[in-house]
Amino acid sequence: MHKVRPFLLVAALVLVALLTCVPLSTNDFWLQVTIGGMIWNDGAIPPTALFPFTEAKDYPFIAHEWLPSVLFYLLHRWLGYDALLFVKGGFGLAIFALAYRLAHRLTRDSTLAILLAIAAMVVGNFRHFLRPELFAVVYLLALLNLLVEYQLTGRKLVLAWAVPLATLWANCHGSFPVALVVVALFAAGAAIDRWRSARAAAPAAAAAAPYAVLGMAMALVMLVNPYGWRLFAFAWQIAHWQVLSDFIIEWRSPFADPFAGNRAFWAYIVYLACGVALGVVHRKRLSATPVLLFVAFALLAAQRQRHIAFFAYVALYSFAATIDADALRARLGRALAPAAVAVLALGIAAVVRYGNMYGAWPHRIATDNFTPPMAEHLAQLEGNVFNSYVLGGQLIHDYYPRLRPVIDSRIDAYGERYFLYTVQLGVNEQALLDFIQRYVVR
Fold first, then answer.
1. Is 70 exceeded by the pLDDT of residue 1?
2. What is the rounded average pLDDT of the residues 226-255?
């Protein structure tokens, strides 16, 4: 058994590297580097959309990802674009380490912990891009580790670390209210379990109280951001924009095209089905918190495919808290570790052959970056550019202010009305001609 574990760990690390250490490809990165550089050099966040040549340049801009933008700018300046694949891989290793620790604390078995951590990473891998969302995943796993540590030890001081974590999350990504949802579900689960326990002497409210206090403290420190309470309103507004699901793939349901049916979709479906099956098999040992978390985040993921990553890591807690590790070890004995090595070896072979969950390899990836002929042509131009929102980020990074876009990928800054207006220009010839004449688009 002990002789197999080094091979198991090496196989896991190789698989994590293949899944996450791949080149950059997202169009958002260029915009974040540009804005991060402005913040770093000017000491201020741009208050408006700024870059377009239309009236949209004066639209208010909430830079909810301002801190990662600064970090991306510095990393890009220090390492260069090509070397940033190692930063993506570094995030992958950090996520694996946190996922492994979470599963190991609950199962007390290194083999099971590795398998569960890898399973969660495979399901969430289709979202592993160098975007501020990666910070949110790290914070989510760190929060779950802190909450589990409190569950297992009862040390309330552990929960205090979640307070600065909440401040960081609120300054990195608009998903920060997820932290409050997780804490609230832990509070509800603790209260339900205390209420169901015939031996409990203290009331159910006493079990939920530490989580409730933590939630209030986290909500308070989340106000320490450049926008205060308005950031909460912004997160709520974005979550309910219908236009996002109509035009932007990641905001659609996982059961909608083009996500439905691809490899990431089936990984999500299998993971979801395994969670349900595990709950049915071990229904007598289920506690309230894993059930509440699994159900709540499964419903969230069913609405927006971008939330599948959060579901993958929250469900990891539910899996690890529910599975009967002792019974599994007794049943499989020494065969568990070799079987795990074989599973990871198959995973490595599959990724080498087919790429990660969005078809990328450490040496190759599909990208929206300008091709050399495009870049050469754009270098000779000057003036206003009619462009899609996908290409606005690199246009701004490489050529602003000599070239100015009509829009970029900050749909939250431009709003539904303006975004739909630019979409309509692409299908209405007369409207486009009038627009070109009015704004002197060259």
1. no
2. 85
Q: For residue 355, give the 3-state DSSP assignment.
A: coil
3-state SS assignment for residue 361: strand
Widest CA span in the chain: 78
- Count CB neighbours of 357 within 10 A: 22
Residue pair 385/213 in contact (Cβ under 8 Å)? The answer is: no
Question: Rg of the chain over CA atoms, in angstroms?
Answer: 24
Residues forming beta bridges with residue 403, ordered by sequence position: 383
Looking at the fold, whether 344 and 257 belong to one and the same domain comes out as yes
Q: Are residues 285 and 329 in the same domain?
A: yes
What lies within 8 Å, CB to CB, of 91 at 6+ separation is 20, 128, 130, 134, 138
> Which of 354, 386, 404 delimits the end of a domain?
354
Across the range 355-362, mean pLDDT stands at: 96
CB 405 within 8 A of CB 349: no
**Residue 198, pLDDT score:** 58
Query: The domain containing residue 126 runs over which residues?
Result: 5-24+81-354
177 and 219 share a domain? yes
Lowest mean pLDDT among 101-115, 152-166, 326-340: 326-340
**Angle formed by the axes of helices 177-196 and 230-239, to 10°?**
80
Q: Are both 146 and 222 inside the same structural domain?
A: yes
- HSE on the CB side for 370, CA within 13 Å? 20
Report residue 364: phi and psi, to 5°.
Answer: -155, 140
